[in-house]
Amino acid sequence: MSSTTTTTTSATTTARAAGSYDPARTTSGGLAGELARLETQAELSFPEELRLLRELGVTGTGGPLIEVGAGSGAVTRRLRAALPELPLIAVDIDGDLLAHADGAGAELVTADAAALPMETGSAGYVLLRYVVQHLSDPLPALAEARRVLRPGGRILVTEVDASCWGLADPWYPELAGVHAKLSASQESAGGDRTVGRRLTRLLAAAGFDDIALRPFATTSDGRPMEDFAPHLGPGRLQPLVASGALTLAEFALAADRWNRFKADPEAWVMLLGFTAAGTAP
Ligand SMILES: C[S@@+](CC[C@H](N)C(=O)[O-])C[C@H]1O[C@@H](n2cnc3c(N)ncnc32)[C@H](O)[C@@H]1O
Question: Domain locations in the chain?
Fold first, then answer.
C-alpha cells in the first residue's frame, strides 16, 4: 500500500477513550506523555514481537493485516518498515489518537473492534496489541476478528499478565501493594491486566483453531535502564494519585525505588510478554 487513506466510519466519528484506556490519563504528561510512552514501549520489544509474529505465521504476503487498536501507530510504523509489501489497515476507536498514525503507511479507520467496517473474509491477519486488556468483554472483538479473516487467516494477540510480568533484580517487595493498586484501578475501569492467562481460552471461545501461545522476553542487557521507564518508572502511577487511587506517599515510594534501581549498576530486568495466535476456520 503506497498511500495513506483516512476513513472514518459514520458510527464512530467521535474520538473517545475506550474501555479502561484513556490516553490522557495513562501516564504523567497527559497525551504527549502517553504518545512518548507508546513509542518507547514499541521500540523496546518490537524486534522480539516481530520474531514471534513471523514464527506464528505472519509473512509479507497474504494480507491485508488489520491492526485493531493501533493507537498512535507506534507498531504500525515498525510493521511497515519490517514488512514493506504487506498492506496494513490501522483501526482504533479513538480517532484523535489514530490521527498520530498518519504517514505510517497504513489505511486509517476509526471504528470499534467489535464492529469493523470490513467485509467478511477480507483479511489475512488481525493483530491486537495491548488492546484486549482494556476490553471489559474481549469476545465480541475476537469474534469480529474471526469474521473479517478469510479461512486460514491468522489472529495475533499480544498481551501481558501482571502476575508474571517478568523479573527485576534487585526486587522491592514493598512495592507489591502499589502494583496491586495499578491492576485494581484498570480492573475497576473494565480492564484486566491478568488477561495473559486467558488468551488461549478466549481464542478457543471465539472459534479459532490451531491455537498457540508464545512468551517473549526483553532484558536490560546492553540497554540503558531508562528504556524501561514506561514499565517500571512512576509515570504510570501519577494518574492514580490524581484519581485518589494511590497516596502521595505510595507514589513517592515507587519513585524512590525506581531511582535507586536506575542508579544501581548491577540492576537487571526482564519483561515478559505473550503472543497468542489462532487460525480462522
Ligand atoms: C494501550 S493502547 C495500545 C496501542 C497500540 N496497539 C500499541 O501497542 O502501541 C490501547 C489501544 O486500544 C484502543 N482501543 C481500546 N478499546 C478499543 C475498541 N473497543 N475498539 C478499537 N480500539 C480500541 C485504544 O484507543 C488504544 O489506542
Answer: 6-161+191-219+273-279
